[in-house]
């Protein structure tokens, strides 16, 4: 009969416990995987499955689970997983921001949609572009890239190493700073054309005051905005792909 000591059990448990923390933190914050519509059992099961596949390829960690240093190691794994997930969320935040800017210029800032995932009211144009970004993320195998990048972090940021430092937080801050720039660049063509339409309506109001710009302005900007979105839709996919790859 085979017998195992308590130290052997703890060593075996640590081999799977530390990677599981990092993977669970990523799944809790990553795009699509963190959606409330996905049951928690599915998320935990996916994390355990990835852990079972990845853990045997990792070197053992000489940190007992029930010790003071284990608290810092566990916090490191959670921070790394959360940082990776938030980095990808920044790409989707830029897409949502672009949708909000477009909806504002089209006069649809009042048209909101309740998002059951975030439980927040989101402008309808932002929701449409956000759903498009999610579909493109799956079509570009972004979920596979994300898992592949997570597995690579176990070698570039090994468990028990000095993974959390000021440089890592500065990189995360720079990634967050790209939200406004990327969102503005994504919405800039539509914003420019819709501003031109609004300027033309303003000149029309000065030249023909008898025309009610408030009556004809909204249908015109809405129609022009929808036409521009349909015309620029083939160009949105490459921009979203570049934005997602930058986040990955």
Automatic annotation (TrEMBL):
InterPro entries named in the record: FliR, T3SS_IM_R
Family named by the database record: Belongs to the FliR/MopE/SpaR family.
Protein name listed in UniProt: Flagellar biosynthetic protein FliR
Keywords: Bacterial flagellum, Cell membrane, Cell projection, Cilium, Flagellum, Membrane, Transmembrane, Transmembrane helix
Membrane-topology annotation of the record: Multi-pass membrane protein
One Gene Ontology CC term in the entry: bacterial-type flagellum basal body
Localization of this protein: Cell membrane; Bacterial flagellum basal body
Claim: Manganese is one of the keywords in the record: no
Organism: Leclercia adecarboxylata
Domain of life: Bacteria
Function: Role in flagellar biosynthesis.
GO BP term, pick one: protein targeting
Transmembrane segments: 12-33, 45-66, 78-99, 120-140, 175-201, 213-237
Claim: Transmembrane helix is one of the keywords in the record: yes
């Amino acid at each position: 009969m085979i017998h195992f000591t308590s130290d052997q059990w703890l060593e075996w448990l640590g081999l799977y416990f530390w990677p599981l923390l990092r993977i669970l933190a990523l799944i809790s914050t990553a795009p699509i995987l963190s959606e409330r519509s996905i049951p928690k059992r599915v998320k935990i099961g996916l994390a355990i499955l990835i852990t079972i596949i990845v853990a045997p390829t990792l070197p053992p960690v000489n940190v007992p689970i029930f010790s003071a240093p284990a608290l810092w190691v566990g916090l490191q794994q959670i921070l790394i997983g959360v940082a990776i997930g938030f980095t990808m969320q920044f790409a989707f935040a830029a897409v949502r921001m672009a949708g909000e800017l477009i909806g504002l210029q089209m006069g649809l800032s009042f048209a909101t949609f309740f998002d059951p995932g975030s439980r927040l009211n989101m402008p309808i144009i932002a929701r449409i572009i956000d759903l498009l970004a999610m579909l493109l993320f799956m079509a570009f195998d972004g979920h596979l890239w994300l898992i592949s990048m997570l597995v690579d972090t176990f070698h570039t940021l090994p468990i028990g190493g000095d993974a959390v430092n000021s440089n890592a937080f500065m990189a995360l801050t720079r990634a967050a700073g790209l939200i406004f720039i990327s969102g503005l660049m994504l919405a800039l063509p539509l914003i420019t054309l819709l501003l031109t339409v609004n300027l033309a309506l303003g000149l029309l109001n000065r030249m023909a005051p008898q025309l009610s710009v408030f009556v004809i302005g909204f249908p015109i900007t809405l129609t022009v905005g929808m036409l521009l979105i349909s015309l620029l839709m083939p160009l949105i996919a490459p921009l979203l792909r570049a934005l997602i790859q930058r986040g990955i």
